[in-house]
Amino acid sequence: MSRTLLLLHGYQQNVEIFKTEITPVEKVIYETFTTQIRIVYIEAPFHAGETMSGIATRSWWDPNAFENVDRIHDTLRHMSRILEQYGPFDGIVGFSQGGALAAIMAGLLERPAKNRPISFNTAHPRVKFVVSYSGYREHYNALQNFYEHKIQTPVLHFINTDDPIVSEDRCIRLTERCADVDGRVVSYTSPFHRVPTSKQTRSALKRFLSEFAEA
């Protein structure tokens, strides 16, 4: 049986930057799913400035301008089209803002269509799992309805206790909106805000994905 995974980059990244960071994770994915596996990388819809070398970066929404929530709904419309065009997806892997979006999408896909935002219009079934690297719960009031119901989809959380960008506390707040986190929170320490690729984190990822490899 073939598997299809959706991979979502972080804020002020793009697909190419994300790929350079996540190569060891991609290798674990291919090793774990011995059947045919398809990985789909999606670029966020909004411009988010440039790197020091002039490379354009993207965002799923503007974390500094939430007095206007139009962008998150534009992103949900964008992702609805992605789900219909490239899915169905078995799982979603996201980093930072992409991890936050992955959790939001998983939760919304669990709801009946009538209980979703009209911007998230898709017939895609619920995903089987989510992997969240430095994913977090957004704190803006306008988004709290996304977390009204605890997420039932299994989510593996990787939390950097020394992350200079996304605090441990913000990541923990996301775990609190997940129904079952027993054995699904991996804490590690790094001075960098990036996808972890240590032996510890790769082993934890492989154990988690193995639960779904034969399902």
Automatic annotation (TrEMBL):
GO terms for molecular function: hydrolase activity. The keyword Hydrolase applies. It holds the Pfam family FSH1. Gene3D superfamilies: alpha/beta hydrolase. Residues 3-203 form the Serine hydrolase domain. Keywords: Hydrolase. This is Serine hydrolase domain-containing protein. The lineage of its organism: Eukaryota, Fungi, Dikarya, Ascomycota, Pezizomycotina.
